């Protein structure tokens, strides 16, 4: 489970490639409405697969409002073939990801961000300061009767005010699979 939000922590810049070898630089995506960097993977049935469709829909909404989105896959895909770049392409197509889905082959970016699980969400304001490190929504594994899109709400708040909500509930999911 991720630690609490370290408000104001500056996002380390990075350049990663998607599965097709196209490079994306984080600072190029840090727009005036902020940036969401999310650590996800393909194989996590516990949470990523369970929310993938909603994740794509929510990200489409955020992007339509000028909030930039980058997804990073830091898992050791030599150990988990389902997370390989080729399978990332299939996963992104299946769930209609229209945001960059990037390979962190060295796992350096996941470590710099202190990402611990998939999904792990980092919401930054226009200055690249962390304002959200919470969960996707209140549904968890189906416990809530009506969905509250906490990540969307937080990112909209950051876009409007530059600040995230004071109260945040950490994300849950499968642990990131690190190399030894």
Automatic annotation (TrEMBL):
InterPro entries per UniProt: PRX-like1, Redoxin, Thioredoxin-like_sf, Thioredoxin_domain
Gene3D superfamilies: Glutaredoxin
Source species, domain of life: Bacteria
GO MF annotation list: oxidoreductase activity
Domain Thioredoxin: 5-160
PROSITE patterns reported for this sequence: THIOREDOXIN_2 (PS51352)
Protein name: Thioredoxin family protein
Recorded coiled-coil stretches: none
